[in-house]
């Protein structure tokens, strides 16, 4: 581990882990974080997120347990308030510096705000130029909750997840959008840099995924330029609202039948 070799200190890292759908019970919060801390070889994480608003029954180490009908084994008694109180205890214990949620909608976040001692520090959601999440972002910013955008460049790699459960999907190619291409060409930037800068310039954290070393480096180089008001407006106009959603979680077969399915 780099910490042990002295290449980096723990304080220089920002470690995030999540409570997965099959651990969505208050009693599972501590043992789940215990396991994460052991595997990360640290005594705390910087951010501990509830991964999804819906819960599944726990069965061994299965990530997405299924029932006999082949659909997800839904736990219909998911209790966000009870889970959140258990999350707060991990902050009290110093094992999580901050706690937050992922894939929650405004109603679900408000329920936590109405019943919490420690409010969510962060919301992680799908957010990109085709789905800009403006009302949700505004709500979070008004309540002092930072927003993190996952799939900020779209999510072409996720097609195989849907395909693996027999769903034939084709996701849009944000990188090839002519408006994005024109701005990138004019500014001598990559299309990915333009898409990411659009998000960052709105005060939102972006977490692009790449395994290509050159692209990883490019995706960090966002702070030597700004998009003009005109270019921001052009990109704003690409928003498709809910129709722009790519990751609807329906690869978890039957998830839309859970009372806490967010969309």
TrEMBL record:
One Pfam family hit? Aldo_ket_red
Q: Which Gene3D superfamilies match?
A: NADP-dependent oxidoreductase domain
The record ties this protein, via SUPFAM superfamilies, to: NAD(P)-linked oxidoreductase
User: Where is the site Lowers pKa of active site Tyr?
Assistant: 18
Q: Where does substrate bind?
A: 51
Which GO molecular function entries does the Swiss-Prot or TrEMBL record give? oxidoreductase activity
InterPro entries in the record: AKR, Aldo/ket_reductase_CS, NAD(P)_OxRdtase_dom_sf, NADP_OxRdtase_dom
Domain named NADP-dependent oxidoreductase: which ranges? 2-239
Q: What is this protein called?
A: Aldo-keto reductase family 1 member D1 isoform X2
* Organism, as annotated: Frankliniella occidentalis
């Amino acid at each position: 581990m780099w910490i042990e070799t002295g290449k980096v200190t723990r304080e220089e890292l920002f470690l995030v882990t999540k409570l997965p759908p099959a651990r969505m019970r208050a009693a599972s919060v501590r043992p789940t974080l215990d396991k994460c801390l052991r595997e990360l070889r640290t005594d705390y994480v910087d951010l501990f997120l509830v991964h999804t608003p819906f819960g599944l029954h726990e069965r061994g180490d299965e990530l997405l347990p299924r029932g006999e009908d082949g659909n997800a084994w839904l736990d219909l008694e998911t209790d966000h308030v009870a889970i959140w109180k258990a999350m707060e205890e991990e902050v009290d214990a110093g094992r999580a510096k901050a706690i937050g949620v992922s894939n929650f909608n405004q109603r679900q976040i408000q329920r936590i705000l109405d019943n919490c001692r420690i409010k969510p520090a962060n919301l992680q959601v799908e957010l990109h130029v085709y789905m800009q999440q403006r009302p949700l972002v505004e709500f979070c910013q008004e309540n002092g909750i930072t927003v993190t955008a996952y799939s900020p460049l779209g999510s072409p790699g996720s097609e195989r997840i849907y395909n693996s459960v027999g769903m034939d999907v084709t996701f849009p190619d944000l990188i090839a959008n002519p408006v994005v291409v024109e701005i990138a060409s004019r500014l001598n930037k990559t299309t990915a840099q333009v898409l990411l800068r659009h998000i960052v310039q709105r005060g939102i954290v972006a977490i692009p995924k790449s395994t290509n070393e050159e692209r990883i480096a490019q995706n960090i180089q966002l702070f030597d330029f700004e998009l003009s008001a005109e270019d921001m407006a052009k990109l704003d106009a690409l928003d498709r609202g809910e129709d722009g959603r790519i990751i609807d979680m329906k690869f978890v077969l039957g998830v839309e039948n859970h009372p806490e399915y967010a969309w």
